Amino acid sequence: MALWALPCAAPAQDGLEQVIGALSQNRVAITANFDGSEIFVYGAVKRDAPVPRTAEPLEVVITVKGPSRPVVVRRKERVFGIWMNTDTVTVDEAPSFYAIASTGPLEEVMSETERLRHRIGFDQSVRTIGASAEVEDPDNFTEAVVRIRRDNGLYAQEDGAVNLREETLFSTSFALPANLVEGEYETRMFLLRDRQVVNLSEAAITVRKEGLERWIYVTAHERPLFYGVLSLAVALFAGWAASAGFRLLRR
């Protein structure tokens, strides 16, 4: 995969250090043969003055988050020997994709206050509002969403995956699975010292269906009647073709 620099502007903040980040690509095309992709995130630290010798080591945390959508989670239990849905909870906010990479264990490089402030972590991104009145254990439903999506490669937390060289250059990569959804994927790069955020940079990755996949998606959503008739015609033709093929084989 060819790499090219896509600089990410960091908001102005007080301090000596500023992150200058870049992505290997800012657009991912989902085509008929799309089987996943990989995004490289890299950058450098710009300094206005030398860092004091007494300063704590520099740390980097990088996150990539996809569009958030509600998710309905059902719990199955055996009732009279039959598995049945007993409880249902709507998880109000759940990113379609969420990955975290850092130079070390997240709880060691970032304080809890900063983590909550910037909403970093699965517990801060997968949220259920008002479900406590519906079930006794709503946290189990949000944990189920995280567990299932981690198993499907949609959620990941990689402590130590960011390579930081001489407190100046950093890099890491994120694997994007084949089952991505369309939308804007938010990338954030945090610089930290003494577990506090000193600067951050943001960028966006656009994921979009292209080619035949795009045509099918647009037709199904914007022209459902035509899509239904076309699907029926294709199914009938496929059935006729299969029947004709078997007849030829029997001769």
Q: Could you write a compact summary of the structure shown?
A:
Helices cover 27% and strands 41% of the residues. It has 251 residues and is of the alpha+beta class.
How would a crystallographer describe the biggest sheet? 6 strands, mixed
Q: What is the CATH architecture descriptor of the largest domain?
A: Sandwich
> How large, in whole angstroms, is the Cα Rg?
24 Å
Termini separation comes to 51 Å
* Number of domains as seen in the coordinates: 2
Neighbour order of strands in the largest sheet: 3-13-12-5-8-9
Number of strands: 13
Derived structural class: alpha+beta
Shape: extended
Mean pLDDT: 82
The oligomeric state of the chains shown is single chain
- Name the helicity range: 25-40%
Could you name the CATH topology of the largest domain? Immunoglobulin-like
Beta-strand percent range: 35-45%
CATH class call of the largest domain: Mainly Beta
Total helical segments: 6
Uncertain spans: 1-7, 9-14
- The helix/strand series, from N terminus to C terminus, equals EEEEEEEEHHHHEEEEEHH
What is the strand and helix layout of this fold?
Blueprint: E1 7-8, E2 17-23, E3 27-30, E4 37-47, E5 58-65, E6 68-79, E7 82-95, E8 98-102, H1 106-109, H2 112-117, H3 122-125, H4 138-151, E9 155-159, E10 163-165, E11 169-176, E12 183-193, E13 196-209, H5 211-222, H6 224-250
Parallel strand pairs: 3-13, 8-9
Antiparallel strand pairs: 1-2, 2-4, 4-11, 5-8, 5-12, 6-7, 10-11, 12-13
Q: Could you describe the 3D structure shown?
A:
With 251 residues, the protein is α+β, with helices and mostly antiparallel strands. It contains six helices and 13 strands. The protein has helices spanning 106-109, 112-117, 122-125, 138-151, 211-222, 224-250; strands spanning 7-8, 17-23, 27-30, 37-47, 58-65, 68-79, 82-95, 98-102, 155-159, 163-165, 169-176, 183-193, 196-209. Strands 3-13-12-5-8-9 form a six-stranded mixed beta sheet. A hairpin with a 3-residue loop joins strand 10 (163-165) and strand 11. Helix 5 (211-222) packs across helix 6. It is extended, with a radius of gyration of 24 Å. The N and C termini lie far apart (51 Å). Keywords: Membrane, Transmembrane, Transmembrane helix. Pfam families: Alph_Pro_TM (PF09608). It comes from Halovulum dunhuangense.
